[in-house]
Design a protein that fits this description.
This protein is mainly beta. It is built from one helix and seven strands; from the N terminus they run E-E-H-E-E-E-E-E. Strand 1 and strand 2 form a beta hairpin. It binds FE2/S2 (inorganic) cluster.
Length: 99
Amino acid sequence: MFRRVEDASARPKVAFTFDGRRIEARAGDSVAAALLAVGILRFRTTPISGAPRGPYCLMGACFDCLVMIDGLGNRQACLTEVAEGMRVETQQGKREAGR
Ligand code: FES
């Protein structure tokens, strides 16, 4: 569904995990871009119905890309750059501030 518009092969590889699955990205990718590039569309579930949500705006406005990163919730995947060893997880429902 998504493909890169540039040849990213010159940038160094960065490995992280999403729900325990190893994902290989390129340095400078956002978490959202890296996940979309490998076909992952579901990033969180809504607090009330549990419906799946994924990135929509990719510019920090809609908050549909919220994920857990290294144990912290409510992180915007579209505004967070991937880092080696980062642990990203689906955010289930709401998260309390500071958790
Ligand atoms: S995709 Fe809209 S805020 Fe991240």
